[in-house]
Structures are given as structure tokens and as C-alpha cells.
Design a protein that fits this description.
Largest sheet of chain A: 7 strands, mixed
CATH superfamily of chain B: Thiamin diphosphate (ThDP)-binding fold, Pyr/PP domains
CATH class of chain B: Alpha Beta
Region (Disordered) (chain A): 1-23
Shape of chain A: globular
Number of helices of chain A: 21
Radius of gyration of chain B: 22 Å
Protein name (chain A): 2-oxoacid:acceptor oxidoreductase subunit alpha
Shape of chain B: globular
Oligomer: heterodimer
Number of strands of chain A: 23
Keywords (chain A): Oxidoreductase
Structural class of chain A: alpha/beta
GO molecular function (chain A): oxidoreductase activity, acting on the aldehyde or oxo group of donors
Domain Pyruvate flavodoxin/ferredoxin oxidoreductase pyrimidine binding (chain A): 239-401
Distance between the termini of chain B: 93 Å
């Protein structure tokens, strides 16, 4: 399978190695590279070095891992996009292919558009399939053997050869490459030296053998100065660390595992006290049911607790999610979305858990969701989720996705929190003495958020009974119709309070456009680029609102009200965001909504959004 | 003139009357074994002098899981979802390991829907008193067999059970629970002694308490009825327990008993009623349970005890205070830490 979306006819076979494409206008800092390897062959280091070298040259860059649900042996791809304009969405066209996997090599070269570039193992003889691309065949095995006497290491070192070849072809600064490589192997001097020798071997071979005939070149910029590179899951972990998380429970599942794995590393480093004891507890649970049960038990007892999962785990957590909503228990649940339904495509990305989370569990249940659209927001929303869950006394879901979670993104550095932790409405023994007692589920302040006490509060009237069955304001069991209805109505009002506390949307509007675009999460990158395409290619202005939470803030309704048509862009088949909007907006406004959806497992790209919008608008 | 005075109510070592350990009025059937268990729980915590506010009581779903409402009303309580109380209890104890926790489950709650969580609770050795109120039948859904119902036992409707029972005690011993016993709700003395010892233990206490269901499973053909238990109960040891705050001199006959010093300094003496019974040998314990089952006996007593194995909360090596209430300065790292991390990512 090839991951480029370019449809090709049947290109004429060619026996030549390089097409004559010289004389074309150079394409500077604006192209994509796709490396096709075999899963488990250790290409991750080489790809990371390529990415970081471009970043080191000050050029905006993004990288995406497209990998199979398999430990080793199946095809895997890594795409790198350099963009002088700072576009970091997946680019629909691949410009340069590095074909290292014999199984996919033919498809890989066929996926290139005319004028593309192919770097490949010479024995694959891919030049026979395309006469309209530039071919750079490389004898990888021979070059590897020359620098790596140990046969068992050659598989890993071989990938560094293509780093050198590509560096030469596109003009990567070798100082930036060496810096990235030394950073990658910081604690392994011997490995660093060996890999650097391989990079140099590739670079030298390309220098001696090829005359550059393709147009793709890099030139230094300063667009990445001061920026960091991090993946979304690590950013979520950092947010949890600085939110003061104390109880972490989890059950491993792709693509969420690295949220907790990163967090464990951070906690071990920064949250061990001088006497060697931990100010946190981490438990690998037996399944997602237990993981979320532990979260809610810990939240009930007063801890800042969290778990991380993906779609199948969310399904299993439904029963406890309802309990958390009804019994009003805090706890943060990270959902790093992947492709469903069922096992689906476990290592591909989607935004298709939105509806199931919004109403997770039976009965009338509604949940607060935070929807980060960048690694910086992964960090900020992760921290905010802990404040919100304790403030609102209800589970809070942070809904990210595989694209954001498992890929590296450049970002402004994260900022230290300016507000103290919000531990919500908790009454102490002194409060109880002063008040003479309390009613657990009473709306005292008019915001529908009740007060609670924590187990261990040393006061005879501190205790109450938490249950998933009917209860009144005093937490006593009841089946009285009025009590049930009152409780449900207060929970509904609490959701309205949540509407005012969750992150407001980001609105980009010029005040004159009649057409709006509405989206959330990782679609942001494609939409930012698509709006530029619409403006530059079609002189078509759009406004844009990015939703950052459910319940929707009031600004969402205002945005829809102020536009003639609003395109809701999302990465699922069933227009889940649009469905939620229809339930929330006044009936008249919903007629303005149109849908653009992308759901093939690959991250959404700008061109697809542009083409679909142009089609629907009849531009 | 003669004067009369009302005698002061009897109090425990904390100065609390037993009233402070009671709960709401039971809504279970009159004569339900679960009520007798609630009474013994009240007695045990009262007599051991545990501050009610220091106890968390948790349960799943079912008749048994209603019972936390009927004891310790000054303790925080959590009636969770069917079969998943272990997870909630685990989370609660992670948040605050300074609390004492008691979980009440049933045979349906534990041995069917909750089996997954049960086995992992046992292997973790969480410091929790886990009681199965075991009547072999689903009461709230009006009388279906549970997974602890014996092969060949009969429902009120005449239906015969054609599947073997799961022995939760054997299972708990194999899985790593450090205090495993079985009792009968009608055996006040034994159950009270076991519960008091359970309070003194630090680790998972698994008590299977046969608790006849008077409505659906107290008839001829039931192996969980009062009559059957009176005829088939075989105690393996007689339990003597002296709390740490009492004179711990004991007067059992030497050579026929096994003395254990509990974590809080209390003294547990298990007087052997079966020869060669060693409560620290899990192989013997499981063997005896299986042999008794073959013979139609219902063994009661403490089958297995290990006071050395660290509890789950010990293994996690968390700070002494509850994680739940640690102040911000101990849970949020400094700005310098964030700056360091950011610098590494540039």
C-alpha cells in the first residue's frame, strides 16, 4: 500500500536512472519526504534525525508516523513535511520517496506525482516504473557493510545511510544533522560514532555519484528559534505532572500508552521526596473497567486521579462513566482516539469518539470534553482538566487523537501555570462545625455544584453515602419522583455552569465573510492551510471557529448565527460534531450547517478540505 | 429519699457507645443472614475501638451490597457498580492509605460479574477487608443460582444446579490474599473473632461468610440454608483473639494451637481442631478445602494467614500522608523543572 493519495495512470516504463528534469525552478523549503521501511527495522532514529535536522535549520517541519498494527515485519511509513509557511498538516502529495522496503517499493514510487524524487535500494531497479520522476538508486547494503563490520548491527545502521543521501540531495546542513544525531544517541557514544559514519558514507556516496536534477532544496531560516519539539501524549503527561496528579491508573492500549509511560518517567524524576517516598501512585490495572473504577474511587477519596485510554477502552468505561456523572465523582480520562469501530485500525487516526463520549453510559448522561488542537493545548488542557473535574465534580475527558498524540510537533515552549490548583468545593471538619452539617447534593451557591467532604474528615457529620441509585440532596436513598427529577435538573444546570468554565473557542474572523468553517482538534492544521488555499487560489474568504470543549461555549452559537453557511469539518464518517451542534443550536441555525468529513485513517489534509468546500460552494 | 440514676451507656476505649457504630434500619428480609453479618461488623469495630470516621465502607450491587447502609453511619460509604467494588476500593486506598477499608460483596457480585476484579484484588494484597455475603443465589433478581451454588443443589423452584461451585477461598489463597477464612452468619462467636482479627491485619482479608437467603435459598435441597449449615459446618480451628489494648495473656492448651502476632500488636490464636493444620501453608489449606468439599463438609475458620507479605500500599512506597490531601508545593514541581524540560526539547 502506498500512503500518498495521488492517482496515477500507467506510466511508461523507463530504463534510465535519472529523468532529465534539470532546469526546473527550485522548490525551497516546501516539500514532503516519505520514508518507507519495514516495521521493526529501527528507522525511527533515522527519521527523527532527519526531522530534527530540518528543525535545526530553522525551517518549520512536521513528522508523521504511519505504522501498522504489528510488532515487526509489515510496511511502515514516516512522512516529513518542510514548510516555509509553517503548514504542518499532512500534505496530500509526497515529493520525495525513500523506498527501503522491497515489498512496497514499486507502489511507493508509483505514488509519486510527476516531478517527484525516489531514493531507493539500487537492486530494486525502480527506474523501470517511472520516467517522470528523478531516481537516485543507492547500494545501501554495500555502503552499510563498509562502515559496519558487525553484521547484526547493519539493519539499524543501514537507515542512517539514507539520512546522508537525503541530506546531500536536499541540502541539509550536516552540522544540524550531526547535532541531531548526537542528541539522539546522547548516552551512547559508540553508537553515535557508528551511525555518524553511516550518515557520512551516504552523504559521500551521493556527492560522488549524483548530479542533482530535482528541484527540492532547503535553505536556512529562523522560523523555529526558541521552539520545542514534542508529541501530544508527552505534552498531556507534562500537563498532568504540573496539575499535581497523585493517582494514575491505566491499561495499555495504542495510541494512549505513551501518555502514562511518559508520565511515569516524569513522576519518578520529579515527584520522589527526599526520603525516597513517592508523592504519587501508579497502577497498571487489569482492564479499563478497573482503571476507571480506580480513578473514580481515588477521586471520591480526594486524589487528583487520571487514566488514559483509546476507543475500545472508552467503550468499557461506559458503566463507570455513568456512575461518575450521577454520583458526581471527579477523575480525568484521556482518550487518544484511533480508528474504530471495534478494533478498527488501531494505529491510524480519527476523531470518531466524540458522540460516544459525550453521552457515555445509559440514562441521561452528559460529559465534559476538552478538545486540544495542538501539543501546547494538550499540555494546557491536561492541566485544566484536573481543575475542572474537581470544580465540577464530574468526570472530565481530554479527547486527543493518534495524529496529535504519537507524532512530533513543533511548538512554542509551554508556560508555567499562573493559578493555584483548584481543588473545588470541599468542606473541612472546621467548616462542618461552623455550618452544623451539610447536604451532599444541595445546590447552595446557585451554580448547581454541591459541596462534598472527603473520607477521613474528622467530624461525625462528614460522612455521606455515595451510590449509583436514586438519592436526594442529603445523599439518602430515594425513589421519589420529585427527588429524582430535582437531581437530574440540577445536573443539567451544572452542565450549563460547565459551559462557562471550559476553554472558549478560538475564532479567526475578518468580519466580512459570509462563510464560516467550524472544526476541532487536529483538523486545525489542515483548515489553516485550506483557508489560505481558498483565498489564494479562489479569492474566497472564510471565517473560522475552532471548538475547544463540550459543552459548547456561547461563542459557537454566535458564530453560526453570524454566517450564512458554516462548514463543519471533522475526521469521522457520521459527522459527529455536526450532530452535537444540531442538538445544541437553535433549530433555525442548524439549517446553515454543512459537512466536510475525512475518514480513511490518515490525518486530514488541506487539499481535501479545499476541494470539497469548493465543490459544495460551486465556486 | 431514695435516688435513682441512669447508668452511663457502655462505651469502648474511644469513649464511643455502640450506637455510634450502627447504621440505618435494614431493608433486607427478616432473618437474612446479611443482617447478622452487619451486626458482627458493628460489634467488631466497636470492640476494636476504631474511630468510625477512619473507615471507608464499599460495596458493589446486590442484596449484600446494600448492607453498608446498615452499619457505621459515621463512615464514608460507596455503593458502586456490579462486581467492580475492588477497583473503587483500590483507588480510594491509593488516595488515602491511612484509612481502614471494608468491602462487602455477594456471591454474584464476586464470583460472576466481578470475578476479574476479585482475582486481581487478591493478588495485589490491598489492605482491605473483603467480605462475601454468600447465599448461593441472586436475591434482587428473585432467585437464580450464583456461581458459588454447589453442584446438585436445588432452587426453590426445583431447578437443579448442574455446574460446580467456585470456591472463593481456595481461589483467594492461590492468588495471594494474606488472610483467608470462611464463617457462617449464624456463628456469632467465630465470625466476631474473625472480624476483629481482620481489623488487625494489614493486607487483603478475604472472608467468605455463608449467609442463608431466607426468601430464595433456605429450603430442602439448598446447601446454603441454615439447616444445611448447622448439619455440615466443620470448623478447622477455634479462633481466639485478644486486641493489642487488652491483656494479651492467653490460656489455650499448649501444643494444639498456632499463635500469630498481628500487625497492630494484637494476638491471634488458632486452636487446631484438625491435626497437622498449618494456617501458613497454602498447599495444605487448599487441599483441605477441596477434600472437605468432596465430603460435603463446609469448612469454617481461618484457612490461611501471612502477616509478612507487604501490602499493596506498602509496595507502592508512597509518602506517609494521604495522597489526596498533599499540598500543592509537594505535588506541583517548580517553574525551574518546567524550564529544564523545555530546554531539553529545543
Amino acid at each position: 500500500m502506498a500512503t500518498g493519495d495521488v492517482a496515477l495512470g500507467n506510466p511508461e516504463p523507463s530504463t534510465g536512472t535519472n529523468s532529465d528534469l534539470s532546469g526546473r525552478k527550485p522548490v525551497i523549503n516546501d516539500f514532503s519526504i516519505q520514508v518507507a521501511t519495514v516495521n521493526g527495522s529501527g528507522s525511527q532514529s533515522a527519521n527523527s534525525i532527519l526531522l530534527r535536522s530540518i528543525f535545526g535549520m530553522g525551517i518549520p517541519v512536521s513528522g508523521k508516523n504511519l505504522f501498522p498494527s504489528n510488532i515487526a515485519g509489515l510496511p511502515t511509513w514516516y512522512t516529513i513535511r518542510a514548510s516555509k509557511n509553517g503548514y504542518v498538516a499532512r500534505k496530500k502529495d509526497i515529493d520525495i520517496v525513500v523506498a527501503m522496503n522491497a515489498e512496497t517499493a514499486k507502489d511507493d514510487i508509483l505514488s509519486l506525482p510527476t516531478g517527484g524524487v525516489a531514493v531507493y535500494e539500487a537492486s530494486f531497479a525502480l527506474e523501470q516504473y517511472r520516467s517522470d520522476v528523478t531516481c537516485y538508486p543507492v547500494p545501501f547494503d554495500k555502503l552499510t557493510a563498509a562502515v559496519c563490520p558487525e553484521a547484526r548491527l547493519r539493519k539499524l545502521v543501514k537507515n542512517m545511510i539514507y539520512v546522508g543521501v537525503v541530506a546531500k540531495i536536499i541540502g541539509l546542513d550536516m552540522k544540524a544533522v550531526e547535532k541531531a544525531l548526537r542528541k539522539q544517541f546522547a548516552k551512547k557514544q559508540k553508537a553515535a560514532d557508528l551511525n555518524w559514519a553511516a550518515v557520512e558514507a551516504g552523504y559521500n556516496y551521493a556527492s560522488e555519484t549524483f548530479t542533482k536534477q530535482d528541484p527540492f532544496v532547503l535553505e536556512p531560516m529562523h522560523a523555529t528559534d526558541g521552539k520545542i519539539i514534542i508529541d501530544g501524549n508527552a505534552a498531556c503527561a507534562l500537563g498532568a505532572l504540573f496539575a499535581g496528579v497523585t493517582v494514575v491508573t491505566w491499561y495499555p492500549i495504542t495510541p494512549s500508552s505513551s501518555v502514562v509511560e511518559s508520565l511515569i518517567d516524569l513522576l519518578k524524576k520529579y515527584r520522589i521526596e527526599p526520603d525516597g517516598k513517592a508523592s504519587f501512585a501508579v497502577v497498571q490495572a487489569e482492564d479499563e473497567l478497573a482503571a476507571v473504577g480506580m480513578v473514580l474511587g481515588a477521586g471520591w477519596a480526594g486524589a487528583r486521579s487520571m487514566t488514559a485510554t483509546s476507543g475500545p477502552g472508552i467503550s468499557l468505561m461506559a458503566e463507570f462513566a455513568g456512575l461518575g456523572y450521577w454520583a458526581e465523582l471527579p477523575g480525568v480520562i484521556f482518550d487518544i482516539q484511533r480508528v474504530g469501530p471495534s478494533t478498527g485500525l488501531p494505529t491510524r487516526t480519527a476523531q470518531a469518539d466524540l458522540l460516544s463520549i459525550a453521552y457515555l453510559s445509559h440514562g441521561d448522561t452528559k460529559h465534559v470534553m476538552l478538545l486540544p488542537g495542538s501539543v501546547k493545548e494538550c499540555y494546557e488542557f491536561s492541566a485544566a482538566a484536573f481543575d475542572l473535574t474537581e470544580r465540577l465534580q464530574t468526570p472530565v475527558f481530554v479527547v486527543s487523537d493518534l495524529d496529535l498524540g504519537m507524532n512530533n510537533w513543533m511548538s512554542e515552549p509551554f508556560e508555567y501555570p499562573t493559578k493555584p490548583l483548584d481543588r473545588g468545593k470541599v468542606l473541612t471538619a472546621e467548616d462542618l462545625t461552623r455550618l452544623g452539617g451539610f447536604a451532599r447534593y444541595k445546590d447552595v451557591d446557585g451554580d448547581a455544584i454541591p459541596y462534598r467532604t472527603l473520607p477521613g474528615t474528622d467530624h461525625p457529620q462528614a460522612a455521606y453515602f455515595t451510590r449509583g441509585s436514586g438519592h436526594n440532596e442529603k445523599a439518602l436513598y430515594t425513589e421519589k419522583p420529585d427527588d429524582y427529577q430535582n437531581m437530574m435538573e440540577r445536573l443539567d444546570r451544572k452542565f450549563e455552569t460547565a459551559r462557562t468554565l471550559v476553554p472558549a473557542p478560538v475564532v479567526v474572523a475578518n468580519g466580512t465573510s459570509k462563510i464560516g468553517i467550524l472544526a476541532f482538534g487536529t483538523s486545525d492544521f489542515a483548515i489553516t492551510e485550506s483557508r489560505d488555499q481558498l483565498k489564494n487560489e479562489y479569492q474566497f474568504d472564510t471565517d473560522y471557529l475552532r471548538i475547544r470543549a463540550f459543552p459548547f461555549s456561547k461563542e459557537v452559537q454566535d458564530f453560526v448565527a453570524s454566517h450564512e453557511r458554516v462548514y463543519v469539518v471533522e475526521q469521522n464518517r457520521d459527522a459527529q460534531l455536526l450532530s452535537l451542534l444540531k442538538l445544541d443550536l437553535p433549530a433555525g441555525e442548524t439549517l446553515k450547517l454543512r459537512s466536510i468529513r475525512h475518514y480513511n485513517g490518515l490525518p486530514i489534509d488541506a487539499r481535501s478540505v479545499t476541494d470539497e468546500l469548493v465543490l459544495q460552494e460551486g465556486i | 429519699m431514695a435516688t435513682t440514676s441512669t447508668p452511663a451507656p457502655k462505651v469502648n476505649r474511644l469513649g464511643l457507645p455502640i450506637l455510634d457504630y450502627r447504621g440505618g434500619k435494614t431493608t433486607l428480609c427478616a432473618g437474612c443472614g446479611h443482617n447478622a453479618i452487619s451486626e458482627r461488623i458493628i460489634d467488631a469495630f466497636y470492640e476494636m475501638g476504631v474511630q468510625p470516621e477512619r473507615i471507608m465502607k464499599l460495596s458493589g450491587i446486590g442484596c449484600s451490597s446494600k448492607s453498608p447502609a446498615y452499619f457505621l453511619s459515621r463512615s464514608h460509604s460507596f455503593n458502586s457498580v456490579h462486581g467492580r467494588m475492588p477497583a473503587v476500593a483500590t483507588g480510594a486506598l491509593l488516595a488515602n492509605k491511612t484509612m481502614q477499608a471494608i468491602g462487602v460483596s455477594g456471591d454474584g457480585d464476586t464470583a460472576s460479574i466481578g470475578m476479574g476484579q476479585f482475582v486481581h484484588l487478591m493478588r495485589r494484597n490491598l489492605p482491605l477487608i473483603y467480605i462475601i455475603e454468600d447465599n448461593g443465589v441472586y436475591g434482587l433478581t428473585k432467585g437464580q443460582f450464583s456461581a458459588t451454588a454447589d453442584l446438585g443443589s436445588k432452587l426453590k423452584t426445583g431447578v437443579i444446579n448442574d455446574l460446580p461451585a467456585i470456591d472463593t477461598c481456595s481461589l483467594a489463597i492461590q492468588l495471594g490474599a494474606t488472610f483467608v477464612g470462611r464463617s457462617f452468619s449464624g456463628d456469632k462467636k467465630q465470625l466476631l473473632a474473625m472480624l476483629k482479627a481482620a481489623i488487625a491485619h494489614k493486607g487483603t482479608v478475604m472472608l467468605d461468610v455463608i449467609s442463608p437467603c431466607v426468601t430464595f435459598n433456605d429450603h430442602e435441597g439448598s446447601t446454603k440454608s441454615y439447616k444445611y449449615m448447622q448439619e455440615h459446618e466443620e470448623a478447622i480451628n477455634e479462633i481466639g483473639f485478644v486486641p493489642h489494648f487488652e491483656d494479651i495473656a492467653v490460656d489455650y492448651e499448649e501444643g494444639t494451637s498456632y499463635d500469630v502476632r498481628m500487625h497492630d500488636g494484637s494476638q491471634l490464636r488458632l486452636r487446631k481442631l484438625r491435626e497437622d493444620y498449618n494456617p501458613t501453608d497454602r498447599v495444605t489449606a487448599v487441599k483441605q478445602l477441596m477434600e472437605a468439599h468432596e465430603k460435603g463438609e463446609v469448612l469454617t475458620g481461618i484457612f490461611y494467614l501471612d502477616t509478612e507479605k507487604p501490602s499493596f500500599t506498602d509496595m507502592l512506597n508512597t509518602v506517609d500522608e494521604p495522597l489526596a490531601t498533599l499540598p500543592e508545593e509537594r505535588t506541583r514541581p517548580s517553574k525551574q523543572v518546567l524550564d529544564e524540560i523545555m530546554a531539553r526539547m529545543q
